[in-house]
Design brief:
The chain is built from four helices and 30 strands. By secondary structure, the protein is mostly beta strands. It has a single domain, classed as Neuraminidase, CATH 2.120.10. The strands form eight sheets. The chain has a five-stranded mixed sheet, with no helix packed on it. The chain is globular, with a radius of gyration of 19 Å. The chain starts with a helix and ends in a 7-residue tail after the last strand. It holds the Pfam family DUF3616. InterPro entries: DUF3616. This is DUF3616 domain-containing protein.
């Protein structure tokens, strides 16, 4: 309701006749990117549920990226150049059945119901040379509280568009979450009624992955959980045994909807409602080791007119394009809008305070 009020009272700037960005005092302005091609949910269906993006450093002005939507077994490559994003090749991540090659041990079905092995429910993408890492939600299904093994997988693929080979997959993130105090008790609980654990983003810093949790939010704290890549992808089917702690982060009562690494060691965090009605989406700069956070601003709402109705996008995917000591340029994608309605934004960064 709060978001709806913001939208109704905002000054709307038409964007190509089909979408608009609200211009409001105190918000972070966004500029729509042009789109070439189509991001696909199915071979003949445009994706409206893009939920993760990561990009390499630019080469001659072109950034190779990977995008994921949360209702697919595959990811899709893309290129960002100037003010345009171009959809590329499909990258298969998981099959129609569990793979015997998946590392670690499959977690037990602990949600109220058990469902078939279907989509990855991919929620985030990160890049650490030479791989893109794609993480499933690792939570019970939002609407029916079902356990779907395919959602409890972390995959990685070579970032080189010319590379071949299958994706590597692991179950060991579940082992990590089950030991990460205090969020361990929320593992495999219902998101809506029990504040159940749900991964919504991932960022990479060297050989360490940071998983951002949409929920639980306990008190005013959202949480980050980290792991070393070599532990997650160690050969064999032994469960993971690495020590795990959840780092509390204050995000104005919000959960983490995505995150991306900044060059100075901080994380750029996109925050929104952990469950229930949506609230305005905010950006924060976060020290991952301590959880110290600084609010950067609120994203301007983005909406499109679809079949005669105004549909408000949910900010779900974030990637850093450029960053200096005092400013960051980013791209954000929106769930519920065709092709993710990609927008570029800029915001000032406060000086890093390690204390």
């Amino acid at each position: 309701m709060r978001l709806a009020c913001l939208i109704l009272t905002a000054l709307m700037v038409l964007d190509g006749g089909t979408s608009w960005v609200a211009a409001q005092s105190g918000t972070i302005p966004l500029t729509r990117l042009d789109i070439s091609g189509t991001f696909l949910k199915e071979p003949d269906k445009t994706a409206k549920d893009l939920s993760g993006i990561a990009c390499l450093a630019p080469q001659q002005g072109r950034r190779n990226c990977l995008l994921i939507n949360d209702e697919s077994r595959a990811a899709q490559r893309a290129v960002i150049e100037n003010d345009r994003i171009t959809a590329g090749a499909i990258v298969e991540l998981i099959g129609e059945q569990p793979s015997a090659k998946t590392l670690g041990t499959a977690p037990d079905a602990t949600c109220k119901k058990k469902d078939d092995f279907e989509d990855l429910d991919g929620e985030g993408v990160a890049y650490a040379d030479p791989y893109f890492y794609i993480v499933g939600s690792h939570g019970c299904s939002r609407k029916k509280d079902k356990f779907r093994l395919s959602s409890f997988i972390l995959a990685r693929v070579n970032a080189d568009p010319a590379a071949s080979g299958q994706a590597e997959t692991t179950y060991r993130v579940s082992d990590l979450l089950r030991r990460a105090t205090p969020v361990d008790t929320y593992f495999a609980k219902d998101l809506e009624s029990e504040n159940g654990l749900n991964i919504e983003g991932v960022a990479a810093q060297g050989d360490r992955l940071w998983f951002g949790l949409r929920a639980p939010v306990v008190g005013d704290n959202a949480y980050l959980v980290s792991a070393v890549v070599s532990d997650l992808f160690a050969a064999g089917h032994e469960p993971g045994s690495a020590k795990a702690d959840a780092v509390p982060v204050r995000l104005d009562g919000r959960g983490i909807r995505d995150l991306a690494a900044l060059p100075d060691g901080r994380l750029l965090v996109l925050a929104g409602a952990p469950h229930g009605p949506e609230v305005p989406f905010k950006l924060f700069a976060v020290e991952p080791a301590s959880g110290a956070s600084e609010e950067l601003g609120t994203l301007a709402p983005v909406a499109e007119t679809i079949k005669g109705e105004t549909v408000v996008g949910k900010a779900e995917a974030l990637a850093v394009l450029e960053a200096s000591a005092d400013r960051v340029t980013f791209v954000v994608l929106f769930d519920s809008l065709p092709n993710g309605a990609p927008h570029r934004g800029q915001v000032d960064l406060p000086k890093r305070n390690r204390n």
